[in-house]
Design brief:
The protein has helices at 6-13, 17-23, 28-35, 44-54, 58-61; strands spanning 2-4, 62-64. It has 71 residues and is mostly helical. The chain has one domain (2-64): 434 Repressor (Amino-terminal Domain) (Orthogonal Bundle), CATH 1.10.260. Strands 1-2 form a two-stranded antiparallel sheet.
């Protein structure tokens, strides 16, 4: 499973959810879902904006969790 690492990036940068809402020209519900891992898709343009806003690499933006399903 792949998740956005937004909560940690916000904390590390000292920024708030409100700041992110304004920077992405989005709404609080969308950002909250992204932070709470409740979204299933993200546009490449949004990924690019997040990388620039947090001045981070792609591996810092995403968390990859291995699925533990038996084969």
């Amino acid at each position: 499973m792949v998740h956005l690492n937004l909560e940690e990036l916000l904390e590390k940068s000292g920024k708030s959810k409100y700041w992110l809402v304004k920077k992405l020209d989005s709404n609080y519900d969308v950002i909250n879902k992204m932070i709470n891992h409740e979204t299933s898709a993200i546009h490449f343009a949004t990924i690019d904006k997040l990388l620039n806003l947090f001045d981070c690499s792609i591996d810092e933006l995403f968390i990859v969790e291995k699925d533990h399903h038996p084969v």
